[in-house]
Each structure stands twice: as structure tokens, then as C-alpha cells.
Amino acid sequence: QVQLVESGGGLVQAGGSLRLSCAVSGSIFSINNMGWYRQAPGEQRELVAAIRSGGSNYYADSVKGRFTISRDNAKNTVDLQMNNLKPEDTAVYYCKISASGSNYWGQGTQVTVSS
Prior knowledge:
This protein has strands at 3-7, 10-13, 18-25, 34-39, 46-51, 57-59, 67-72, 77-82, 91-99, 102-105, 109-114. It is mainly beta. The strands form two sheets. Strands 2, 4, 5, 6, 9, 10 and 11 form a seven-stranded mixed beta sheet that branches. The radius of gyration is 13 Å and the shape is globular. The mean pLDDT is 95.
């Protein structure tokens, strides 16, 4: 059974930084895409950043220049470094991976940015 465990969320003031980490465990052959989504109250879940197995990445316009996604294929982890955080970044952040034709989600970690 594949499990994703996120960590690193919390409360931070505007302009501050947080680093989210997602560790993948279980029986999995190879991971294609890894990404971070977020969902604010009353909003739809949105893709924040993603990284392919080859290393190419994607960022939502709202986080470009502030967030950096990285992955460690040997450890099956994906991190999201978030700098210059804004109150509108407040949301539950979810890790998602795609592997062997299936998608797997983490349980989410709360990020709250105070003004």
C-alpha cells in the first residue's frame, strides 16, 4: 500500500518561509510526476507546483519566483520551499504522485500566513 506523509506546515507571518516535505512509502515501482496542490476554504483544489521524473517543473503563476519544488528520486521525497509567503497562500497543501497509472494523495498539511 502506497502512503504519502506530508510535514512542514504551520503558521508564519507574511514574508516568511516554510518548507513542506512529502515522503512516499510502500510498494511502488517508479514515480512519474510529483506535485503539490492546495485548497483554501470555499475554493477548489489547485495545482501549485509539479515536477516530472526527468526534472522539468511547473509553477502556478501565483507562486512563480517564490516557491521551488524539488524531488529526491532515491528517497522518494518531494519538497516545496515557499518563500515570501502571502496571506493568500493560506490553504491546506496536499502532495500528489502519479505512478504506474495511478494517482496517490497525502492527507494534507495546513499552511497559515498571517498579515
